TrEMBL record:
InterPro entries per UniProt: HATPase_C_sf, HATPase_dom, Sensor_HK_TwoCompSys, Sig_transdc_His_kin_sub3_dim/P
Residue span, Signal transduction histidine kinase subgroup 3 dimerisation and phosphoacceptor domain: 192-255
TM regions (residue ranges): 12-35, 47-64, 70-91, 98-119, 145-166
Keyword rRNA-binding annotated: no
Species this chain originates from: Allocatelliglobosispora scoriae
A Pfam short name: HisKA_3
Annotated Gene Ontology cellular component terms: membrane
SUPFAM superfamilies reported in the protein's UniProt record: ATPase domain of HSP90 chaperone/DNA topoisomerase II/histidine kinase (SSF55874)
GO molecular function, one term: protein dimerization activity
Histidine kinase/HSP90-like ATPase domain residues: 298-391
Protein name: Signal transduction histidine kinase
Keywords from the UniProt entry: Kinase, Membrane, Transferase, Transmembrane, Transmembrane helix, Two-component regulatory system
Position of the signal peptide: none
Length: 396
């Protein structure tokens, strides 16, 4: 991970924890101050403290939301926060609200300074002990109150260390999350490159190899075997045209899926466009699914081929497409009410009968570790049922 990314993670973590500390400190301090309103004859100090805490918290949150990178400059922030703590001490004369605020200030210092958390907490602890001594002298407090008051400065030190540890943990979590996402993206990119290489090898590259063999033999055949040369020239021409068609088909297939969109919407869009082009109504019932990119691509190509066959051969009045995930599988069912055809007993006979599109669909399903079942009879339409496994943890 680059230094810039690590710094950004630290900024995001510090800003997130700082917001939580500011809100938590405001809630505790204002609650303690509100309780003090019922215990004091003069409410003015408590009301002033409430206003001071509210203003300081609102300003701090506004600045943090506007520019989270402000956490990279802790000294002015901590100085202003320390001044606010002293103002609260002056207003409340060592009331419990000050001690609550001071603990939150120590926690904020821990968020902003990390390993140096005890340095900004030390001034708060020192002032806290002085304020505690003054409160105890003035109030002639009991031993129980003494322990309660004297614990607050120590709590500030603990809050500073704890906040620093939490911030470090959040930053580490962000770093690991970013690395995990980056690894997943690299894996997806590698899988996509392998799939494209396979598609090119199985289609365009194979055709171009045949063209090259014919082209190599063409010069030597021109004078001695004119008829053979003519056939070779026709082979080169036809092969080149086939390669162009295969490349165009591959590019069209890549455009079918839009991985940044919800898969059900992509399926629905494909069916709507086909229906618009062919004039055959399509009823689509697609549940939410989020399969991997490779699964999306192969299913889109299967649906494309099924719809193409329907348009060319079925003479259907309606097509139904149903897709949903259940039991760790993603299923897609494509059916029409067209002419249908005779299904051979062995699927291998489909290739001999010229049903290469059907054979390609079966191979695509097998490539994903799934199955494709085809049922058809003359006059009874055709049903294609595809089921492919989903990786563990894939959202349905």
């Amino acid at each position: 991970m680059s230094d810039a990314t690590a710094q950004l993670n630290q900024v995001v973590a510090a800003a997130a924890v700082a917001r939580s500390v500011l809100l938590g400190r405001a809630a505790v301090t204002m609650t303690a101050t509100a309780v003090g309103l019922r215990l004091r004859a003069d409410p003015y100090p408590q009301l002033t403290a409430l206003a001071l805490v509210a203003v300081v918290t609102a300003v701090a949150l506004a600045v943090l939301n506007h520019d989270p990178h402000v956490v990279r400059h802790p000294l002015p922030i901590l100085a202003l926060d320390f001044a606010a703590a002293l103002g609260l001490l002056a207003v409340g004369h060592g009331d419990v609200a000050y001690f609550c605020y001071a603990v939150g200030a120590c926690a904020l210092g821990g968020v902003l300074t990390g390993p140096w958390a005890l340095l900004p907490a030390a001034p708060h602890a020192a002032v806290g002990y002085l304020a505690a001594a003054d409160v105890l002298d003035a109030a002639d407090a009991s031993v129980r109150l003494a322990g309660f008051v004297l614990a607050f400065p120590t709590a500030g030190l603990l809050a500073a260390a704890g906040a620093a540890a939490i911030t470090t943990g959040v930053a580490r979590h962000l770093r690991l999350s970013v690395e995990l996402v980056a690894a997943a993206q690299r894996s997806a990119a590698a899988s996509e490159r392998a799939r494209l290489a396979r598609e090119l090898h199985d289609s365009v590259a194979a055709t171009l190899r045949g063209v090259s063999f014919a082209a190599v033999a063409l010069p030597s055949s021109l004078r001695r075997h004119p008829a053979l040369a003519q056939r070779l020239a026709d082979t080169v021409s036809q092969g080149a045209s086939a390669a162009v068609a295969q490349a165009r088909d591959l590019l069209d297939g890549l455009r079918l899926d839009r991985p940044d969109e919800e898969f059900a919407g992509v399926i629905d869009g494909m069916c709507r466009q086909w229906s618009k082009d062919c004039g055959v109504p399509v009823v689509v019932r697609a549940d939410h699914a989020d399969p991997p990119v490779a699964v999306r691509y192969e299913l889109c190509r299967i649906l494309q081929e099924a719809l193409r066959n329907t348009a060319q051969h079925a003479k259907a009045d309606q097509v139904d497409v149903v897709m949903g995930a259940a039991g760790g599988q993603l299923r897609m069912r494509i059916s029409d009410d067209g002419d249908g055809f005779r299904m051979p007993a062995d699927a291998a006979e489909l290739r001999e009968d010229g049903h290469l599109g059907v054979v390609g669909m079966i191979e695509r399903a097998r490539l994903l570790g799934g199955t494709l079942r085809l049922a058809s009879r003359p006059g009874s339409g055709t049903v294609i049922d595809v089921a492919v496994p989903l990786p563990v943890g894939t959202a349905p």
